[in-house]
Automatic annotation (TrEMBL):
It comes from Caenorhabditis elegans. One of its GO terms (cellular component) is nucleus. PROSITE patterns: PIWI. The lineage of its organism: Eukaryota, Metazoa, Ecdysozoa, Nematoda, Chromadorea. This is Piwi domain-containing protein. Residues 536-826 form the Piwi domain. One of its GO terms (molecular function) is endoribonuclease activity, cleaving siRNA-paired mRNA. One of its GO terms (biological process) is siRNA-mediated gene silencing by mRNA destabilization. Pfam families: Piwi. SUPFAM superfamilies: PAZ domain, Ribonuclease H-like. InterPro entries: PAZ_dom, PAZ_dom_sf, Piwi, Piwi_nem, RNaseH-like_sf, RNaseH_sf. PANTHER family: EUKARYOTIC TRANSLATION INITIATION FACTOR 2C.
Amino acid sequence: MNQKQNPRLALNIFGLELSERTIFRHVVQMKLIDRQHNKEYILTTMSARGRGNRATKQKDNFILLDILLKQWAAKKGQQNLPAFAYDGAQSLFTLEGISLMVDIKKEDALEIPELSNFLKDSISFLSGDLEISCEPDLEKPSFVQTELNEWSDPRFYAYLDIVTSQSAIRSERYLSQSKGLYVHTQSLEELRVKWAVAAKGIHKGCRIVGANGPLPILELDPQSTQYYASIPLSQMLQYAFPRDFPPNRIVNPNMKLQRAVKLLLKDLKCNPYYDDKQIWATNTITVSDVDYNAPKDPEFRQKYPNLKFPMLPAVQCGTGPHKRLMPLEYLKVLPYQSIDRRVLEEFELTPRANAPNERWSTLQKHYDQFGFNDQVMKDFGVQICNDPFNNVSEIDGERVLAPSVAYADPVHVDDEKRDWKAQDKKFVTPATIDHLMFVLVAGYTRTWDADCDATKFVAKAFMQRCKDKGMHIGSYSMDQHNGERGSENFLTSVFKNLVTHPNYRDSSFTPFVLFISDDVPNIHECLKFEERMSDIPTQHVLLKNVKKMRDNIEKKSQGGRRAYDLTLDNIVMKANIKCGGLNYTADIPRDLACWNEVSTFVIGMDVAHPDRNAAREGNPSTVGLSCNSAENPYSFIGDFLYTDPRREAIQDEILRKFTDQSVRNFAEIRGFPKKVIIFRDGVSFGEETAALKEVEIIEQTIKTAAKSMGHSDYAPKVLAIVVKKRHHTRFYAKGGHHGNMPINPLPDTSVGGDIAEYGKRQIFIQAFRPVQGTAKVPSFLVIRDDEEVSDEHVAKMVCAVCSLHQLVNSPTSIPTPVYVAHELAKRGTGLYKAYRFKNGELFDDWETLTTQLSYSTLDRLSKVRVV
């Protein structure tokens, strides 16, 4: 029986009280002037180029600003410096207008004792002078901080963030890393791999909330980050690959090892060692590639005769005419370089998620160490107006009723966890696989026969489990390949053979490939490329998971018992939806109309962007779009399209084309929709206007399609919601033995009202139960609501749509159409990578590339969920 519980929730937000002050905004510029070559080097930048690391740059800039402010005070006849708040780069706030330029000659600059050696070496090398300027910001030179119209300006949030950070930054207890992250500089801990360190930090941001009136708040969320250790690259390589690079012989690594080494070292910023001067230099150079032939090159060995590790590979540094080959031991990693997410995953360094009580305790420690309500905050009239831990900010949450979940028969939804057990219940729509093919590729195995046996065991178990769930399998076959060499050509030959099947050209014929491999480089992208080119659905399973499934089933089946394996069940669920089936449905409670009764068209949108390096190479952004235009209204299918790099707004023509085709398919089955629900992910703060424009384009496209079919007065009701997960608001319920320990809220809990962004209808909805760590509850911003439904209605609907994932028997954190759109955008990025890998060429005609790689032109994959 579902029980409705309305919990009291604590938050990680603290109110700010502002006194009336006129705040002056300035732009600070610091330059190193090379007068001999008539060049200027900007110092007020935190980019990786130029001298030093982020910590030394930040400290140098504060020192130089202090010199300027002292001269300003002297000019005004003041003994004390003016009150100021500075971000360590270009933004300065004061209580009076300042306009001043200061020149510091080379000789005087070198005498400043606190300046870093990085900056002093740059000054000496260029024989340059320093120029420091502070001028009013012409866009907005001043503002009154208590005027409410200022509070809607994103720059006002940046001001509050800088003012509340001065004690932490000036004391050097914290380093301003990026995007609101402040790292505790005295808490660096060496990780088990020794080439990386972990730093504890806090994400701090300011925003305006309130249902009845605006309230500025400070938001604090503990966040750890991982840095590369500041060690020579030779030491890093030997720590990372202790068995692969012995110091006494040259190594010719396989593709897997080459990929891992390049992933680790590429784009690292380093200080070089100059053998002739016997010093580590302060200039910065960047690793661009790894060269395994350098140790064999007589010219390289002659150039570097005194190496301790002459057998290790070398690295290419720089690009173009400045490109050069350097030994690993002559490069030391620059401090405070964050480790890329892909490296963390490759080396299994992703940090452990903190439980709610740990996170709350860490939050208290950071609050004490940050030094809030200091003299700077008092001068600027900004104060935290409540004791955040003895007088905790709390708000009422609301727990809605669980959705109704059904396979072929209804299942029981656990009231506390909100998950369900399907056991042997058959799928709602079991798929038919006309020809099933198992393919094994083992690039690095030493137990080939055992791997083949495990694959055959799991293949048999897979087919039996498909039968249990109501699926039908016609014929099946198996193929296999041993070794890294030739694995991609083998994969291509498998699909070439499949497309020659006598029934292949019949679009109702459904082949399916279950592909099993170890970690062969690029094999997943190549598999999905072959899937797209052949119009044959596939599922990729790692060999190590096949072995675990085999061992688990054998262990559980001892004594003749029936054995279930959760991973195997998940694979069967994926196979069913990829072949056109539907596993289960989830409906909102009966007081709201379900999609079977009221024709409802649901669309999800997301955009995946290339990283900065890939964007510089010209890689596109990828738009992912999904909707419920399949045979069953609870099934979400979709496609992806390429667009200009780093473009967040979806182009009008892309939306029109996808919506028109999809809603016409929807109308053929269920008529034109009475309701349209739109979920948009990935919209940043302040970009809701662009999202509203997208909603209008979708609505007009649907109306135009309906009008062309004779529905002249047609006007569906629209509900449009922006989904945001990239925020730092956290919620804590009370639990434990004594009822006062911070715990995660229960699934299907929603919170709105007083903590919503001021002037907006924002609801935080936690549909899921966190497996580990503290829940990150998505924000749902309602930007259009034609029917004026209640927040409770929105929460019930969202929780039901989060329960339509199909791949697991529990809700996800974001609605299924958004999840599918997100995965389709990722798939498009992967297919572009495979296209580049196979063809070796850049492509900037995004429309043509979309036609070549997307699914909309295919007979099979365009009609099913492929991710």
